[in-house]
Structure formats: structure tokens, C-alpha cells
TrEMBL record:
This is Transmembrane emp24 domain-containing protein 10. PANTHER family: TRANSMEMBRANE EMP24 DOMAIN-CONTAINING PROTEIN. Keywords: Endoplasmic reticulum, Membrane, Signal, Transmembrane, Transmembrane helix. Residues 1-19 form the signal peptide. The gene is TMEDA. It is found in: Endoplasmic reticulum membrane; Membrane. InterPro entries: Emp24-like, GOLD_dom. Residues 29-180 form the GOLD domain. The lineage of its organism: Eukaryota, Metazoa, Chordata, Craniata, Vertebrata. It comes from Oncorhynchus mykiss (Rainbow trout). It is a single-pass type I membrane protein.
Length: 206
């Protein structure tokens, strides 16, 4: 039972932290996308290597194009926002330089993002609510359990939606197949009567 719980929990835990390092060529734009559930706190920390002849812009948007965070000349900093609905959000870094692409080296971007339980600052919560270390760990486990329950509830909801869509599609395919068969039978019947009249007109049959 414990092994099964670990197998079910680990994928959820891995989804809380997102860390990546990549090179950003000059005068180009690189974006990362991730899906996040509703009412989830997202925090992030980024750092871009210094380049005197390049300017970097950071913009975070949702699927509707709403700007969740924007920073010009972004070299190092933090951001945080809370999702209003289940959505796909996009983190974009853009490098600009007046010297052109061949005269400026690529910049190194470090991005560390957290959401859900990992994004909460439990040390600050402990100070505000005057919690003991054991109470802080219990609060963390409670939030983690709630997050896991919400994830499973969402997966169950998606499974029900896909099952309903599948059943609806099967019914439509069945009706279309019946309609196609009726059309073929009607066309075949019409051909028989047409050919019979044609052969009678040619006096090939009586």
C-alpha cells in the first residue's frame, strides 16, 4: 500500500517545481508553456547573464493574451501570481540588441518556477500565525494532501468529460452509419427500378 501511495504521489510532487537553464540568442524570443490548475499560487525566480549590448524583456501571459507579469530590461528578479482558472500560461524571454545577431554572444537564462505547495512560504506563515515547527509540517502536509485530492478530482472530471465525449461520438457515428446504409439501400432500389424501365423501353426484357 505504501509503495502504491509513493507511486501516485511522486508525479504530483515533481509537478510542483520547474527549473530550467537555456541559452537565449540575441534578437530572438524563447517561450516556455505550462498548464496550471485554478486558484494556484505560482512563484518564480529568474536570472539572465549580463550582456552590455543586449536588453532582455520578460513577459508572462495566459492563453487569452492577458499579461500576468511583465518586466523590461529583466536581468534578475522574482515574480508571483495566482491563476484564476485552469489555463495554459506562457513565459517568454526576448533579447534585443542594435548590434545585430553576429556581434553579441548568447545569454544564459536560469528560470526556477514553483506552484502549489512548493510556492508557499511556510516560514513566513509560521511567523505570522506563530506556529511551532511541528505545526508547520502538519500545515504543509495538509496543503499537500489537499493538492493531491484536487489533482485526482480534476483527473476524474476530465475522465468523465472524455467518456461523455466518446459516448456522444459513438452515437453520432452509429446514426451516420444507419443514415448511410439507408441512402445506399435507397440508391440501389432506385437503380434496379430505373434499369428495369430502361430495359423494358429497349424491349430487352418483358
Amino acid at each position: 500500500m505504501s509503495r502504491l501511495f509513493l507511486l501516485l504521489t511522486f508525479p504530483v510532487l515533481f509537478d510542483f517545481t520547474f527549473s530550467i537553464t537555456f541559452h537565449l540568442p540575441v534578437n530572438l524570443r524563447k517561450c516556455l508553456r505550462e498548464e496550471i490548475h485554478k486558484d494556484v499560487l505560482v512563484t518564480g525566480e529568474y536570472e539572465v547573464s549580463e550582456q552590455s549590448n543586449a536588453k532582455n524583456n520578460l513577459k508572462i501571459t495566459d492563453s487569452s493574451g492577458h499579461i500576468l507579469y511583465s518586466k523590461e530590461d529583466a536581468s534578475k528578479g522574482k515574480f508571483a501570481f495566482t491563476t484564476e482558472d485552469y489555463d495554459m500560461f506562457e513565459v517568454c524571454f526576448e533579447s534585443k540588441s542594435p548590434l545585430g545577431t553576429g556581434r553579441v554572444t548568447d545569454q544564459l537564462v536560469n528560470l526556477d518556477m514553483k506552484h502549489g505547495v512548493e510556492a508557499k512560504n511556510y516560514e513566513e506563515i509560521a511567523k505570522v500565525e506563530k506556529l511551532k515547527p511541528l505545526e508547520v509540517e502538519l500545515r504543509r502536509l495538509e496543503d499537500l494532501s489537499e493538492s493531491i485530492v484536487n489533482d485526482f478530482a480534476y483527473m476524474k472530471k476530465r475522465e468523465e468529460e472524455m467518456r461523455d465525449t466518446n459516448e456522444s461520438t459513438n452515437i453520432r457515428v452509429l446514426y451516420f452509419s444507419i443514415f448511410s446504409m439507408c441512402c445506399l439501400i435507397g440508391l440501389a432500389t432506385w437503380q434496379v427500378f430505373y434499369l428495369r424501365r430502361f430495359f423494358k423501353a429497349k424491349k430487352l426484357i418483358e
